[in-house]
Amino acid sequence: MKSEKEKMLAGELYDASDPQLVAERAAAQKICSNLNCQTLESDQKRSLINELFGVDTDISLTPPFYCDYGRNIRLGRRVYFNFNCVVLDVAEVSIGDNVLVGPGVQILTASHPLDSTLRRQGQEFGIPVVIENDVWIGAGAIICPGVTIGAKSVIGAGSVVTKNIGSGVLAVGNPCKVIRDIA
């Protein structure tokens, strides 16, 4: 029988109130809270970032930053998160090299069943998000569950990305649509 965490990571319906998941979220929230303290020395900040993501990483971020688990975020090199970003990482979030994430961006993998009975039972699921190399996501954009953003693309500020975006394009709006090639 699969644990709730195994179900969560497999994209199956799972119970988010499972004690293991609650404890792991609480641990990530504690790290985020400490990370978001503006008085940290750079070595303290680096230590907390590495603890949150579970790897030694060269990511840069400007607090505040929030996530569910941290450990489900796969980071390339030279990734930057600006102020007030949120990553709901109940499924894997894969971020390539040289990715710029503007202030107030939300990257969401968490979703809920359309069936209200399942929602009342506390069931939810996640769908992975992929952001390829050299992407720039403008301020306030929302990246919805299951989306892939292709390499060298730019997502305009305030966009709501509900479908995959190809490589080398400028995409904007709600819903986000490609408006032209840029590469």
From TrEMBL:
Which terms are listed as keywords in the entry? Acyltransferase, Repeat, Transferase
The protein's matches in PROSITE patterns, at most eight in alphabetical order, are given as: HEXAPEP_TRANSFERASES
Please, which domain of life does this record's source organism belong to?
Answer: Bacteria
Q: Start and end of every Maltose/galactoside acetyltransferase domain?
A: 5-57
Keyword hit for Nucleotide-binding: no
Q: One GO molecular-function annotation for this sequence?
A: O-acetyltransferase activity
Q: Which Gene3D superfamilies match?
A: Hexapeptide repeat proteins
Is the keyword Phosphoprotein in the record? no
Q: What's this protein's family per the entry?
A: Belongs to the transferase hexapeptide repeat family.
Return the protein name.
Answer: Maltose O-acetyltransferase
Question: Lineage in the entry?
Answer: Bacteria, Pseudomonadati, Pseudomonadota, Gammaproteobacteria, Chromatiales
